[in-house]
Amino acid sequence: MIQSEAVPKPRRNVELLLLVLALAVGIGASAMVGLNSAAAFDSDFWFQSSLLAVAAFAFHIVLRLRAKYADPVILPIVVALNGLGLALIHRMDGPADDTGNNQLRWTLIAMAVSIAVIWFLKDHRILRRFTFISLAASALLLILPLVPGISAGEILGASVWIRIGPMTFQPGEIAKITLAIFFAGYLSSNRDLILLAGRKIGPIQFPRFKDLGPMITAWLVSIGVLVFQRDLGSSVLFFGLFIVMIYVATSRISWVVIGLGLILGGGFIASQIFSHVAFRIDSWINAFTPEVFGRSPGGSGQIVQGLFGMADGGLVGTGLGQGRPDLVPFANSDMIIALIGEELGLIGLFAVVMLYLLLFTHGFRAALGTRDAFGKLLACGLSFAIALQCFVVIGGVTRLIPLTGLTTPFLAAGGSSLLANWIIVGLLLMISHTARGPVDTTPLAPAAPATAASTATTEAVKRQ
Amino acid sequence: MNDISELTITALRFGFLLLLWILIFSIVSTMRRDFMIGRKAVTGTPTAREMRKHPELAPAPQPVKQHARQLVVVEGPLKGTTLALSASPILLGRAQEATLVLEDDYASGRHARLFPQGSRWFIEDLGSTNGTYLADQQLTRALPVELGVPVRIGKTVIELRP
Lengths: 464, 162
Hints:
Chain B: The chain crosses the membrane at residues 12-31. The complex is a heterodimer of chains A (464) and B (162). Chain A is mostly helical and 464 residues long.
């Protein structure tokens, strides 16, 4: 356990320096895109760049005021990714498209909400009081798209959107945060019961059903609703979140084994029952077969065009704005990783993967450093949600696993995902503030003994 | 596009990739401190200068600590029994495999566990029916047991002694 006995250092100036670099990446990318198209450095470019910069510096100032000891690396990474995403989405806009401006609007909204979370919440431990409210909220958010009045109907084979005025919104994205809060709150208070009570069958100790009941219910609700909504990616995400948080809370490897088994089993059953899952798996295994390539719906054209694009990019890429990503369907959302691979090459793609890796490790550092069990579990769950999203998307685009409809955090076009991920960043910053700052002795939540982890079971005791 | 030469564009292309990696390397190098986890000196025991500037940072003189050497039953049917403590955990309860078999109707089969962690002993309730009390507080999680603090299990009270 790393308890920092150091003099706590805010390191906000480091953040400011990195933030300038990150903005240089984001704005540089959009300048490069402009350079290669007709409209270089027009008033639009300056307006949008300055909006992004102002928002980023505003966020930085809020951190100076409210979360002085927050991890100085998280904000620059996220700003760099978001800026790069904005440039790439602008680059894909046709003359009549407004996706880029829409994404910028959502970026500003998301940053504002994230700032509001940091400003008004002040301490993540307050969220622990809302454990069961979060469960109810998650269920509500997941059911919303099925309610006739506000449902936006089936878009692209999944009914996960709701309509608010002119905008569509994906409430499931927010549900991943509320579910993480619920899991963290429930597991941090019931960890010992799950760990110690229960009967042992073979090498595995099974918890009592009543201890695990709410967890199973939460999981069944999310999976059930998602099967109804035919959103494969999100159900993988929720399931992964469930397994990881229970593993982190109990440190029993058997959960991971059971979880992987259930995912494989569930995937097999889903591929037998649902045609869209079967199509996804078929177009993953037999991607290069001509009949699969041209099939509609459920062909592999998208993946294969993305692979061709990345192959064309090679090591250093074709340069921003010079590839042909218009050949790939959804190049600005699902396939944005393929677009990066094409225009920035392997070197650029690895830089992006590296940024995600750093973001993830810093999320986990916040989890390691914070002293309350709830914060630890929440930070683990939230950073793992980002990591799993990256794995599922990048793995899908590079044909490591079947392609599922998850969004690339911060990069892909999509307001709800952007909003949810910025809120996650706000929470991680807040947790890292308590992790890195001086010991906070306010008796808000009784800190569970993290080091007194009772991982050993009782059978080790022999009569002396 | 016409007025910018091919060479400039290529230079900018590579320049951008370089910029991306410069960002990554600066992030990693600012966090160099954090990667040295095992070495306390590096992760930040305050230096002599920092201690002079902030006196509160100086490590407090450690009180001489006595380690628990034995467990004594001070009340209940087994009163007077002592048990030498070693490095291994101790199971308390009515079950025959328990380290200290309590002949106490109010104790559960596998009632509580006493285990060493660092230089301290912790007590943890194993989901017993009647609960375990550390200094009249019912246990909800594992807690450290200080010397001479009574731990009550049913009608039995035990203490740790040096």
